[in-house]
């Protein structure tokens, strides 16, 4: 089998780029269908309309909040009525995934505009589908990556710091999952083996987090886009995006998917749960204590959860944790890309041990 690396056709990141959105997307079509949240509309609606010069070939539809089959079908119906020919998703991960799915079914170009840097979803040829109540359902693999990913640093810098931190949690998994996938010679989401290029980006992603993460978090708390913020936006979005998709996913994301079944974790962001999944993966691998401590100290420095209690799981029961372990090991889950066989009993043990390591660190 071949090695394959995939990426969006164009990645644009800069200060004030949302004001120039029309110039960036105009060549893709004539009529633009924008999926956006209500708060996103309040924050960016006017800016986008002004960029298009109030020409009226722009239709805004408010997102219902979940990337589910029902929501995708609802949006497709409206898009067909409006006769739009380009889909633009403006907002966070669930809006991006929804926009990509709608564009795929309608066979149209798609532009992804992250207004936060909280996941590595924007660049990928992948939509994660959830049920209407927010439980992980399945991955929808798309034949191509977005035509354009456009990020305005200023919008990310004005978002709550917790979102950028969650993005760092998602990006934290990239290197460790790519390393595991490469060592097991697993097929990645790109449909082939891991390239050296994807591995290099995944490693750069991890190094950028360690070097710039805390500086970026402190800057964004002051709502200013410094160089460190710019570098972390790139790490969370581009490096992690290419890194996970063409580098490979493994245990950390599968364990995250298991945690989505636990009601108490629903108010935590994807990346916050993924970060804990990284710790669990490192325990599964029996990684060096130095490496585990490096990850614990990074998570602690920027405020990512390192214990079950910090994942909002106040009462730890065998039943509950076994359910997470079982779900993370279902056939087809990326945990089977680990370089050794993983059972639900081992995941159960690793979750409790990761929690104990986190609590030990907190002492
Ligand atoms: Zn992720």
Report mean pLDDT, rounded to a whole number.
Answer: 96
Shape: globular
Main sheet overview = 6 strands, parallel
Strand order in the sheet with the most strands: 1-8-5-4-2-3
Ligands bound to this protein structure: zinc ion
Report the end-to-end length measured between terminal Cα atoms.
Answer: 48 Å
| Order of helical and strand elements | EHEHEHEHEEEEHHHHHHHHH
- Number of β-strand runs: 8
* Total number of domains: 2
Q: Which percent range fits the helix content?
A: 40-55%
CATH topology of the largest domain: Dehydroquinate synthase-like, alpha domain
Poorly predicted tracts of residues: none
Proportion of strand residues: 5-15%
The CATH class name of the largest domain reads: Mainly Alpha
Any idea what the CATH superfamily of the largest domain is called?
Dehydroquinate synthase-like - alpha domain
CATH-level-2 architecture of the largest domain:
Up-down Bundle
Overall structural class, as computed from helix and strand content, comes to: alpha/beta
Secondary structure tally, helices: 13
Rg over CA atoms: 20 Å
């Amino acid at each position: 089998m071949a090695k394959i690396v995939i990426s969006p056709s164009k990645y644009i990141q800069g200060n004030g780029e949302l004001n120039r959105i029309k110039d960036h997307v105009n060549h893709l079509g004539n009529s633009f269908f924008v999926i956006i949240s209500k708060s996103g509309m309040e924050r960016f609606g006017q800016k986008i309309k002004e960029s298009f010069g109030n020409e009226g070939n722009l239709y805004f539809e408010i997102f219902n909040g979940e990337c589910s089959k029902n929501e995708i079908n609802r949006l497709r119906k409206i898009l067909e009525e409006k006769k739009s020919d380009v889909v633009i998703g403006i907002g966070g991960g669930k809006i991006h995934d929804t926009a990509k799915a709608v564009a795929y079914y309608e066979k149209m170009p798609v532009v992804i505009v992250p207004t936060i840097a909280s996941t590595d979803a924007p660049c990928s040829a992948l939509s994660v589908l959830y049920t209407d109540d927010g439980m992980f359902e399945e991955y929808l693999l798309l034949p191509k990556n977005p035509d354009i990913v456009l990020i305005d640093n200023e919008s990310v810098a004005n978002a709550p710091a917790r979102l950028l931190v969650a993005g760092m949690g998602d990006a934290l998994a990239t290197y460790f999952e790519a390393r595991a996938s490469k060592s097991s010679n697993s097929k990645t989401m790109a449909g082939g083996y891991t390239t050296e290029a994807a591995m290099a980006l995944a490693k750069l992603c991890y190094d950028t987090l360690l070097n710039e993460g805390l500086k970026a978090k402190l800057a964004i708390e002051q709502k200013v886009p410094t160089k460190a913020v710019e570098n972390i936006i790139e790490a969370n979005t581009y490096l992690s995006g290419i890194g996970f998709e063409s580098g490979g996913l493994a245990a950390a994301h599968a364990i995250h998917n298991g945690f989505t079944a636990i009601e108490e974790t629903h108010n935590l962001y994807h990346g916050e749960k993924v970060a804990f999944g990284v710790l669990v993966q490192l325990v599964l691998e029996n990684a060096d204590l130095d490496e585990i401590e490096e990850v614990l100290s990074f998570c602690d420095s920027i405020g990512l959860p390192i214990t079950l209690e910090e994942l909002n799981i106040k009462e730890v029961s065998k039943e509950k944790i076994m359910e997470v372990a079982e779900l993370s090991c279902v056939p087809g889950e990326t945990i089977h890309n680990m370089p050794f066989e993983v059972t639900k009993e081992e995941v159960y043990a690793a979750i409790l041990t990761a929690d104990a390591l986190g609590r030990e660190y907190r002492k």
